[in-house]
């Protein structure tokens, strides 16, 4: 019996995928797996029973990744599951920024009790005139699941699309429309584009990437959209650029004291993935990742351990080993098992940075005594019996 707990509400369409071998618990104490959305986990004590954490979403800054890796807890996210919801909000943001829709709606509210509102609207509407997206240049920084959807959809709006991503995957490149202009230098996007939207993860190298220097390269009256993370933008520099008229609008999905309510800023309350479809997709993907890991030992979409897949185990036994990425680990595993008279019909080993993961199929059922001997090897973080 596997036990799981939810630190946030998780869509039932996902939880229903857990079979009869799964039990939902209220506490973290004896859980094998955790599903989480935005709950902060940095100060939580992780029980020894915990093997996996699945974030129903893409960002994982609320999870202590290094601590989890060190304790042999595999952390998953759900890339692409909420991509369409965020993509649609990007276009909503571009339309709100290019046409004063919000100002027009507020005018109608204020004049709603006036009998001649229709006549007055004809005179007032010129104050809310804007520009169209058709023919404008859109620069997309980051061509992951969201960036690709934005790029392809923008072509249907008649936009000229520039994409920048030095680490674009082969799979992502195949999904990208051939009409997208792939840019090798992000500065070209700053100089050329009327709209710039950011879709990169938060890393040391991307924090404050849109800073005073980057803004200075941009076109006059550029619109900047940030649906990724607020700290990707130096927001004090952005406010200065708005005040000076360099930037027309800054659209963000991350309200904070710096930008909320400031002139030229359109801020939404972190609703990029807040659609019924996105929440369902994230829940389904998170549960599927946990089940495949707990039942088969396979890892897909982990953010702290390498991808690893040996399918369903057809052999008598299988063990998974989270360990440090140091020399001679595989040699020690195989030597120990040989001394125990255990054959290894199949195995796989993958590494990622300082950590590695091994799956070993055995010709005998694994037992706790064998687990204890494997765990005693220096550099081993956690051993788990799959079968």
| Alpha plus pi helix count | 13
Quaternary state of the chains: single chain
Whole-angstrom Rg: 25 Å
Terminal CA distance reads 13 Å
**Strand ordering within the main sheet:** 8-7-6-9-10-11-12
Largest beta-sheet details: 7 strands, parallel
Category by helix and strand content: alpha/beta
Uncertain spans, ≥5 residues at pLDDT below 50?
none
Q: Give the strand content.
A: 15-25%
Query: Order of helices and strands, N to C?
Result: EHEEEHEHHHEHEHEHEHEHEEHEHEEHE
Compact description:
This protein is α/β, with parallel strands linked by helices. The chain is 32% helix and 20% strand. The strands form three sheets. It has a seven-stranded parallel β-sheet, sandwiched between helices.
How does this structure look, described?
- By secondary structure, this protein is of the alpha/beta class.
- It is built from 13 helices and 16 strands.
- The protein has helices at residues 12-15, 65-70, 83-98, 101-110, 117-124, 145-156, 170-175, 186-192, 212-217, 235-244, 276-296, 329-339, 368-375; strands spanning 2-6, 22-24, 33-36, 52-55, 74-76, 137-141, 160-164, 181-183, 195-198, 222-226, 247-252, 265-267, 317-324, 346-352, 355-362, 380-385.
- The protein has a 7-stranded parallel β-sheet with strand order 8-7-6-9-10-11-12, sandwiched between helices. It has a 5-stranded parallel β-sheet with strand order 2-1-3-4-5. The chain has a 4-stranded antiparallel β-sheet with strand order 14-15-13-16, with helices on one face.
- Helix 1 (12-15) links the parallel strand 1 (2-6) and strand 2.
- Helix 3 packs across helix 6.
- It is elongated.
- It starts with a strand and ends with a strand.
- The relative contact order is 0.12.
- The model has no long low-confidence stretch (mean pLDDT 95).
